[in-house]
Amino acid sequence: METNLSQNDHSTDGAAARGSWGSNFGFIMAAAGSAVGLGNIWGFPMQVGKGGGAVFVMLYLCCVVFICLPILVAELALGRSSGRDPIGAFQVTKPATPWWLAGALGVTAGVGILSFYCVIAGWTLAYIWFSLSGCVGQAPGAFFGAFVADGSKNVLLSFAVLTITAGILLGGVREGIEKASKVMMPALFILLVLLGARALFLPGAASGLAYYLKPDLKEMANIAVLNAALGQAFFSLSLGMGAMITYGSYLSKKTNAVKAAGWVAGLDTMVALLAGFVVFPVGFSIAGFNPAEGGPGLIFSVLPNLFASMPGGALFGAAFFVLLTLAALTSTISLLEVPTAAMVDRGWCRRKSVLLVTLAVAAMAVPSVLSQGAVAWLTKVPGTGMDFLSLMAVVWNNWALPIGGLLISVFVGWVWGADKAIAELKAEGNSFPGARVWAFLIRYVCPVAILFVIVMTARGMFAG
Ligand code: PHE
């Protein structure tokens, strides 16, 4: 029953070999870097488009505040207390129980998510060059379609993303992950504000904003939209799969993890909302724009229109895609770090772990690449009506992450115990003002709400 203190005090046992954060700011940038990524700038506007605009935004914000923020705190607490990778975190906290399987689900989800995420990150990489050279032309949508259908080019691009990610991971936690994030995150934020300011002055911006901000309340009861909002919130905050358990395991007890969680969730939400302020005004300034039809190409076919209409747009466009690539990289880093940490904590050396995991992900990325037009049956996977890449996104984001989040909230709230988690979070005199509210959310609200969404979605799927 009692957690073994000496086992949990990782400040002495091998912390140097595993790695640790150099500063509070560095940790927040790395964790916010994990959170802020394609999910915010590419995924969020796309989901808003599919989910009917402002209703999605409202549901999303509710999911962030009442479900995801408490789980973020729980993951950091579990990681810091155990000082282990996601599998080890469950094992150390409740030895000789099957709970480690929840961690294993997370590690698997990390690999699965990275296998399609690196494909999209490859697109952003290519668009740096496309923006500079101006080859996107007058019909960015058609250009995008032709580009993604080129299988061999895109295999190389996604491998390039994985190689860069692996390179940073080899540098270790502090010198690799933390250093990269401290530069990339502030730059991304500044550029996004500038782009948003420009977008608001485009003709058509007003109808874009109305779509984005005025909810059509009929859609509120649509369970598919709620499931998408919950999945998106989990994905955007990097939750439900142990990324934050892993990052929490490199934390010192001195850090106020609750405050840090607030920063991470706040920054992540701000960037997603800002991305909407860029994409929708720009979209609605183009004749015949239908946000629901935007699909995966939304960012790649809408934003080039903005860049084409701006003085110095080629450079601005290139800068945007540079930063989008950097934001994607701070996320791929955390995705690759989860299975890497799982191997390192099982005695493998960091180099071998990074290499093996990268190779496995690279192989898994190929079908996602080929599903964008190169191979017919992957473009519409039989029985799903979706291409393979979108199918991966639904399986991992909308299912694996909420299920992972459910398990984590039950584990921390009931099995490990909310009180023990609070004690961990208050270690070294750190304050935790809303501790009782948090305990209520993690024990009751999170499990019930997530279970409700999962069950209702499953019912809808089988009924429909
Ligand atoms: N949060 C990242 C994004 O929004 C994606 C991610 C998910 C990263 C899960 C790590 C873990 O792009």
Please give the structural blueprint:
Elements (H helix, E strand, L loop, with lengths): L4 H4 L6 H4 L5 H12 L2 H13 L3 H29 L3 H8 L6 H34 L6 H9 L2 H20 L2 H27 L5 H9 L9 H14 L6 H6 L8 H28 L13 H11 L4 H32 L5 H21 L5 H4 L8 H38 L9 H29 L1
This protein binds phenylalanine (PHE).
Phenylalanine binds next to helix 3, helix 4, helix 12 and helix 16.
What does this structure look like?
The protein is mainly alpha-helical. The protein has a single domain (13-463), classed as Hydantoin permease (Orthogonal Bundle), CATH 1.10.4160. Helix content is 76%, strand content 0%. The radius of gyration is 21 Å and the shape is globular. The N and C termini lie far apart (45 Å). It binds phenylalanine (PHE).
